[in-house]
Amino acid sequence: MKSSTYIILFLFSILISCQNKEQKNSSTIPTKDLKDYLEIQIENSSILIGKLNSMNENIKDDYTIIKEKDTLFVIKNFLESDDFDGKEIILKDKNVKEIKLKYNISYHFNGTEKENIFLNLSYLYSTNLDSKNLIPSFKDIENRKEIISYLAQNKSAIKEIAHNKYINYYQNIPENELKNCCITDYQNYNRIKNLSESELEALNLENDLGVFLDYKSLIIEITTNSNKKMIVTFTKDNKREPKIEQQKKTKTHQKILIQ
Q: The pTM is what?
């Protein structure tokens, strides 16, 4: 009789253990407050990205989601709304098999605070989520050797594009208006507007041309269990760009993609 009781208790303990393990494995959403996460619907499922700070205490008001074919574009409604890098991705269920990330890297032009303006160039850098399902922060990405090498090999072309953007922007502002409102910008514009090609090499991208390395969009490629691919593109310049295919390579490195 005792042996039968022990056997029953043993089987019961195994059953409870299996149930607990199954519940743990099947839970893709941890127990946390998700009000600061943006939910994005994909193929009978959804992903959540956060935590995000809201301008109006409601994350849904900070972003607009637009679907075009197999791509969901996420556009910020306010310049001050949070970017996606450094944020966590949470899977709402098990319908997602794989997630890949691509940073569309360019230079942010700091001439105006009214909108995000980027140079007309792109460099795609691919990476993965980290072990904690965090999207890598761009501060960590920008120092990776592939990007540093690319920027070094293309610095002359980048400076030329940055110089053209700077000149085109400030020459469209009336001289007296620029002089009265922004004397430093006025003086810098007149100093560098007629530089020779060799003189451009000595310019500093940040201090002289007002551009800063940044990403203008983050492409999140999602593969479901049915092998259907969905693309979520978070864009910082509010442009719905076509999908950027893998860039053509020169003998040494990837070319700048002029759009």
A: 0.77
